[in-house]
Amino acid sequence: MNIGVLGGGQLARMMAQAGSSLGLSFMFLCPDSHACAAPYGEHLCAPYEDKRAQEHLVKWADVVTYEFENIPLSLVESLQRQIPLHPASSILSVVRDRLPEKLLFHTLGIPTVNFAPVDSLEKLINAMEDIGFPAVLKNRTQGYDGKGQALLRKEIDLSAAWEEVGKAPCIVESMVEFRRELSIIAARNQNGDMVFYPVSENHHRDGILRLSISREDDPMQVRAKAKIISIMDNLDYVGVMALELFQVGDQLLANEVAPRVHNSGHWTIEAAETSQFENHLRAICGLPLGETSSAQTSAMVNLIGRLPVEAEIRNIPGASLHFYDKSVKTGRKVGHVTLTSDCSPEEFDLRLAALLQLAGEAELAGRKFFNSTPLTQCP
Q: Angle at Cα 291 formed by Cα 289 and Cα 293, nearest 5°?
């Protein structure tokens, strides 16, 4: 079966790597001449709007998917009229824009932080009377890894923040004191069958995910699962979805949806019976979904803007290294490392601390994630 992918980054790369065991072939439409997915299929190096490239993709592929949200919606709509495409363009039109996404959550009874749409400095000033400080101003579209966002601490920040986000349509969100940032990843096929992964506990710095920890049997699993079921069923979703959440006390507030495989689920490659990448392919190809169970606790550390010495990573027991073959650049995700457990909680924390130090995450390296919490036990 031939899979067309819009995009050629690391998510497309790992999708293709997972597809090799299923006998799938891949073609990537991506304007980047150095697309890191290119070695794993045919690379159509052309702008997304290129009609000849689109025609070639449609003739070759049996189904099309995408690895990120910030692709031209008109392209996705056009392709869907010619070839099966998942997730559907109607879904992308909702979840790529923070305002209809938040409205969807509220329609489904899923709580969020307080928010308001703003499209001018005057409306931002007025909105702050209800939202209050501190708050975050976010572009409605095109934002990722902390881009297109500005922190609002006091009224004097508003004018500069409006300039910083490019005077584009935004939403402003109240900031809340949360206990944890969590995400849950699920896959849904064309028959409505679903499978779920354990929630991930996520740690960010500068708006970029640094560490994800798989939390098997987490007390928030049932609530997170109910929310993502509600969203996926409402959208008649096909593929893998990630739902990002804030835990505030005993409540889960929805932050945003990713209509694709997700960074916080990279640990599934080594630790789950079926990775999120394979289950996405199974869902869009009409194949039975794979089991998501895991016998091991795991953590995933992103490599941001630096590549550690490979031998030093491999010296850490249980570490699995993934370099993306991307040039090193400040703030760029150039790889990740999964750490799987075969040890006591104390030893796992030591190994994770060593890995975080090599990744340049000294602050996180000083924390205890397994030895100090009853949420998860190493086998």
A: 150
